[in-house]
Deoxynucleoside kinase
Amino acid sequence: MHVAIAGNIGAGKTTLTKLLAKHYKWEAQLEDVVDNPYLDDFYNQMERWSFNLQVYFLNSRFRQVAQIRESGKDIIQDRTIYEDAHIFAPNLHAMGLMTNRDFENYSSLFNLMESFVQGPDLLIYLRSSISNLVDQIHRRGREYENSISIDYLSRLNERYEAWIHGYNKGKLLIIDVDALNFVDNPEDLGSIINTIDAEINGLF
């Protein structure tokens, strides 16, 4: 079983991934943020490092998906291979932070990789307002995220909504996280788990 959590920066993907992994005894596949050699450079000089960063993420997530399918284990994944290709890379290109040449090269690479991977059995999308994202980003205090602008988050949110609207890789569950506090409120986490249980039971 392969479950994946999608959502904008600060939506709570990693936290929910860990909580659900613990509850269901699934193995968690987390996003490679700590060891990513490009993140600091990217946030300081986006135009120079955007292609390098996106290729690093693409490589990392393609490897993850291959390992998930080979392992035969029940795995929950923090962010999908699709988000980079449908949201982050096109956004950088549209903002003039990735050249046409690099974007075409990246897209060609993704299309090739996508032909070798399957979508998750269940995708959980965490929908969030910009104000909630900003609060969460400030609360966790990652230094390299200090320079993220509201305009950048808004553009990403628009692309997420467009992608989710046309998502067709498998079962989809949308959770509006603005009204939830699944970290401090066990009832909120419980309601999410109940909703997921219903989706999972429908898979079999």
User: Anything to note?
Assistant: The chain has eight helices and five strands. The chain has one domain: 2-203. Strands lie at 2-7, 27-29, 75-78, 122-127, 171-176. The mean pLDDT is 89.
